[in-house]
Specification:
Rossmann fold; 2 domains; 9-stranded mixed beta sheet; 7-stranded parallel beta sheet; globular; binds glutamine
Length: 543
């Protein structure tokens, strides 16, 4: 029987609802259940694809090409279950589909209203598919009380009624702030948040309380009494050293046991947490450390590179080293007389994805510096494109090499891709088309050159990786670049789109047109990140 777990948030945002949901999913898996995680985002954008990375954080891309919330990245990393387009929606997408149907006349003259039309569309989304899993965990973005969240709360309230407690549970994540002047942990914000939730008809079954210290028993009783939950269902969520410690911490406090008690399943299983214990101890006891510079445009918000950071950490786990990060805004290196010597202090340089011209020269300079100083360098998507332009300009002598992303270019080494194939279908894009959802998105296969460094790293000749870009390296320039030690060792199956290059005369310099970070998991670190950190470790031993 498919059961639904709804996770809402209160008091303040940024309490880690995404990680809490992912960790609970992992705990249920550890007890032998199958799970699927979904996110309902109340904002009006159709998807986060057009939102600024410094405001909204990373856009997580699924295999089937959906641009989704970064929480889906946590879900995949914690549970190993690949997400799809069916796992994230927004107010914008819900309204878009309702309005398309309205224009077609599908509603047969009805007056469209939030209840029932919008709430029905939300319920359809929550209930659709996933019929083969034991638990669907559904996180509602934002906090209770937000105006745009109301239709989502109403929809899950209705589901609670329709499916009944034997198939639904409501978990509310709140904060217990500590007021130093009073020397007390305060329960009032949690009480207010639950009051707000109950005023719209939702009685939470479990309260997960973020707290700086253990919750004293009398405070726990008070919360239970005022919020109408069992004292055992008030579960403290203390800060932990690392996000991968969260499943262990929640299990210790009885979160999964309480969820299963609600469904009458508490005696049916005991959790096997051995793999989480292994990861936790590997993170806590590294054998060494490396420092990687991330030279990017959006470093002001580290969440903009969430999966890159996690994948670097997984690469560290695979080599049993801690990965320290040095964040460098790429525009710091834009000026011709910029001092790049801070790169001398790091063991590797990562050039992440990005958009637009600011910081582009800085990325090229960082790539050039890594090339000349034989520093391990990993270019991802835009980072790969800028590295190729640097190689074209400074190795192959094509001085006016550029990208059409910044306007007309003397020699457009990187250009707008207006036509390509996916399987047997031709995808076509216009230069002045919509920006939303029109990039080359999702999983595409690539063929790797025999005996190349990347074929060795992957241990395979054919791979599949997720994409999110509008521009491509122009394959017409490959012969020129290959004369200078740039090997295009990964190509699209039709041989038209360069997917990977590597420098043959360099210890580790690889550029990839796709986003390998999206597929890395703590229990299955991505081979490129594992190899990159290994190269950085070798580099650190040289100096
Ligand atoms: N701006 C580049 C493009 O659209 C790279 C995108 C990215 O790094 N994700 O092709």
């Amino acid at each position: 029987m498919k059961r639904h777990i709804f996770i809402t948030g209160g008091v303040v945002s940024s309490l880690g609802k995404g990680i809490a949901s992912a960790a609970l999913g992992a705990l249920l898996q550890a007890r032998g259940y199958s799970v699927r995680l979904r996110k309902l985002d109340p904002y009006l954008n159709v998807d986060p694809g057009t939102m600024s990375p410094t405001q909204h954080g990373e856009v997580f891309v699924t295999d089937d090409g959906a641009e989704t919330d970064l929480d889906l990245g946590h879900y995949e990393r914690f549970t190993g279950v690949s997400a799809s387009r069916a796992d994230n929606t927004t107010t914008g997408r819900i309204y878009q589909s309702i309005l398309e149907r309205e224009r077609r006349g599908d509603y047969l003259g009805a007056t469209l209203q939030v209840i029932p039309h919008v709430t029905d569309a939300i319920k359809d989304f929550v209930l659709s598919g996933a019929d083969d899993v034991d638990f669907v965990l559904c996180e509602i973005g934002g906090t209770v009380g937000d105006i745009e969240g109301l239709p989502f709360f109403e929809a899950i309230r209705q589901l609670g009624q329709e499916l009944g407690p034997e198939r639904c549970i409501f978990i509310h994540l709140t904060l217990l702030p500590y007021i130093a002047a009073a020397g007390e942990m305060k329960t009032k914000p949690t009480q207010h948040s639950v009051k707000e939730l109950r005023s719209i008809g939702i009685q939470p079954d479990i309260l997960l309380c973020r707290a700086p210290f253990p919750v004293p028993p009398e405070e726990r009783r008070k919360i239970a009494l005022f919020c109408n939950v069992r004292p055992e269902a008030v579960i403290e969520a203390l800060d932990v050293a690392n996000i991968y410690d969260v499943p262990l911490a929640y299990c210790e406090k009885g979160l999964d046991a309480e969820v299963l008690r609600h469904f009458g399943l508490e005696k049916a299983s005991t959790p096997d947490l051995s793999k989480w214990k292994d990861v936790s101890s590997a993170i806590a006891n590294p054998d060494g450390a490396v420092t990687i510079a991330i030279v990017g445009k959006y470093v002001a918000l580290h969440d903009a590179y969430k999966s890159v950071v996690e994948a670097l950490m997984h690469g560290g786990l695979a080599n049993r080293v801690k990965v320290n990060l040095k964040w460098i805004p790429s525009d710091r290196f834009d000026s011709p007389d910029a001092d790049l010597s801070e790169l001398d202090e790091v063991d590797g340089v990562l050039l992440p994805g990005g958009f637009g011209e600011r910081g582009a020269l800085g990325k090229m300079r960082a790539a050039g510096y890594a090339r000349r100083h034989k520093l391990p360098c990993f270019g991802i998507c835009y980072g790969m494109q800028m590295a190729v332009i640097e190689l074209a300009r400074n190795l192959a002598g094509i001085e006016n090499a550029g990208t059409t992303e910044f306007g007309e270019s003397g020699t457009p080494i990187v250009g707008l891709m207006s036509e390509w194939t996916r399987g047997n279908t031709r995808e076509v894009r216009a230069k002045d088309g919509d920006l939303g959802g029109t990039m080359r998105l999702g999983a595409y296969p690539a063929y790797l050159t025999a005996n190349s460094k990347v074929a060795d790293i992957y241990g395979a000749r054919e791979i599949s990786e997720r994409h999110r870009h509008r521009y491509e390296v122009n394959a017409a320039h490959i012969p020129e670049l290959e004369k200078h030690g740039v090997l295009f060792s990964g190509m699209s199956p039709d041989g038209k789109l360069p997917e990977i290059f590597e420098l043959t005369e360099h210890p580790w310099f690889v550029g990839v047109q796709f986003h390998p970070e999206l597929k890395s998991r703590p229990f299955d670190p991505h081979p490129l990140f594992k190899s990159f950190i290994q190269a950085a470790l070798e580099q650190s031993r040289l100096v």
